[in-house]
Structure formats: C-alpha cells, structure tokens
Amino acid sequence: MSERIERGADHVPTEKIDTSTTKYPTYIAEISAGEYNVKTKHGTMYNFIDPNLKTFEKMAETNPFAAERIRSLIEADISHFEEVLLSKNFADPQRGYRSLVDLDSFVNFFIIQELSKNIDGFRRSEFFYKGKDGKFHMGPLWDFDIAFGNLNFYGMGKAKGWAHKKRWLIYPNAFWFKRLLQDEYFVQELSNRYFELRKEANLLSWESLNARIDAMSKTLQNAPERDRVRWKGTYKFYQKHVMNTRKQFKEDEERKISEFDGNVQILKDWMQKRLAWLDENMGKG
User: Fold this and answer.
1) What is the C-alpha to C-alpha distance for residues 105 and 117, in angstroms, rounded to an integer?
2) 3-state percent helix, strand, coil for the chain, nearest multiple of 5
3) In this model, does residue 40 exceed pLDDT 90?
4) Is the pLDDT of residue 193 over 70?
5) Among 25, 157, 166, 279, which is most exposed with the fewest C-beta within 10 angstroms?
6) pLDDT tens-digit profile of 58-104?
C-alpha cells in the first residue's frame, strides 16, 4: 500500500543513471504545482522523482560535476520539449512535439483524467518520464482521491464540464495539454481513441466498467463495514465539510442495501452521467 512511483522492470521503464553520460538520460518527473524542485521559463512546476534530489546530493558527495551535469541535462531536456511545444511548427509531424512524445500515452492520460474529472489531473501528481525509446511518456497514473465526483466545490462534483479548462488561482494547470488541444491531429486522435474504447465490450463500455466495479467491490468483502466502524466520528472538519462529498446513504434493511452498496451506486450513477457528457463533447475541445 505504500509503494510509490519508481524505476524497475515491472514499474517505469527507465534506466539507472550513468554518471559518465553526456546525453539526455532517462528519468521520471512529476508536474506538481505549488510544491516543486524546478519551475520552468513557461511556469511549469515539477519535481525530480528518479533520480531525485537525494540521489543528486549523494552523487555530489563523490562526483559533484556529474551530479550538476545530469541535473542540467534533465532540466534542459524538459525545457527543450516546452520550447518545441510552443513553437510555430509545434504540430509538424517531424519538427514538432510528435517527434518527441509517445502520443498514445498522452491521449490515454487525457482520457482517464477527464473521465474521472480529476481536480489534480492536469496540475499535480502528474507523472511523466523519458523512456528508453527517447520519448516523453505520460504516466504512471496517480492520485484519484478527489476524482469521480468526490468533490463538492469548484463544480468538480458535477458530471458535466471539462477538467482541463478549469482556471485555478492556486496550483494552476500546466499548459501542456492546453497547447496539445490546439493541434487538430491530437484532438482527432483523442476522439478516435475515446470512441474506440467506448465500443461494446471495450474498456470504457458501461458493460465493462460496471463489471469491473462490481468485481472490485466484492474483493473488499467485509472491509467496508470494519472501516466504517473503525473511523466513525473521526473526520476532521476539513474532511467532513469540505472534501468529503460522500452522500449520506442510510442502510435499507428491507431492500438489504448497505451504506457501502449505496455509495457504490452513487459512483456508478455519476460515471454514467459523465460518460454521457463525454460522448457528446469529446473531440469538440
């Protein structure tokens, strides 16, 4: 339960840092508005994940020049990507951003963040990595505690509306996806991928999603009731009145519906409404 984003054969496919390298290394980073190691020229705030600051500090103890060089290479690589993304030729297949990214990962990332209407999706806990293929990949996915309608302000609890278009005074969205959506090719790829996933029996068909929710719910067995009893009455004011949007579903002994089952149904109802809205608006910007 405490596992974090990390490099590894079954995790993120990046390589261990070679201190002798003079080329762009592979690495993992996290867009994290408000809490960051680096803020780019264009306002993107990000953290080093692998290598991280502790890695650089340890490296600097024995090889300070290598530590500084590798950190500078990573920063330069991300800056170069942003310059290309903001260039006049950004949509050109060879000279633009498409030559630098794993496009499928960007498309899939956008779809899941909008499906869940994740308040953090385009500004915090937004992981990306430079892979062994030399391209930028979005992911792995992380941080969905206040997604799927589980937020009762900023309009994020509503099934309608785009998450990426929200304007935040604090912790603003990174500009990357706003720029990508100015490319007709990217928008078309989004639309194609989304409606392919929505086809019958595919991952985002309601048949598939409904079955997955039911299967995951069953694996919990009696844990929801034990959890309710253990933490009853312990919510802090902030959790209970600001962040906690769980509707009060009273147990119905006659219909044998528990509070947990009722809340699962609340999630299902929200997701169906969200999908219906996305069906009408995907590909329209």
Assistant:
1) 18
2) 40, 10, 50
3) yes
4) yes
5) 279
6) 999 999 999 999 999 999 999 999 999 999 999 999 999 999 999 99
> Cα separation of 252 and 248, whole Å?
12
What does the pLDDT read at residue 89? 96
Write 95-99 long-range contacts (CB < 8 A, 24+).
96/183, 97/180, 97/183, 98/185
Containing 62, the helix (H) or strand (E) segment is: helix 53-62
pLDDT-derived band at 248 (thresholds 50, 70, 90) equals low
Burial class (CB in 10 A: 0-12, 13-18, 19+), 75: middle
Label residue 177 exposed, middle or buried (CB < 10 Å: 0-12, 13-18, 19+).
buried
User: pTM higher than 0.90, yes or no?
Assistant: yes
Is the torsion defined by CA of 105, 108, 114, 120 positive or negative? negative
What backbone torsions phi and psi does residue 29 show, to the nearest 5 degrees? -140, 170
Distance between CA atoms of 134 and 61, rounded to whole angstroms?
Answer: 29
**Is the preceding omega at residue 224 within 30 degrees of 0, hence cis?**
no
- Phi and psi at residue 101, in whole multiples of 5°? -120, 155
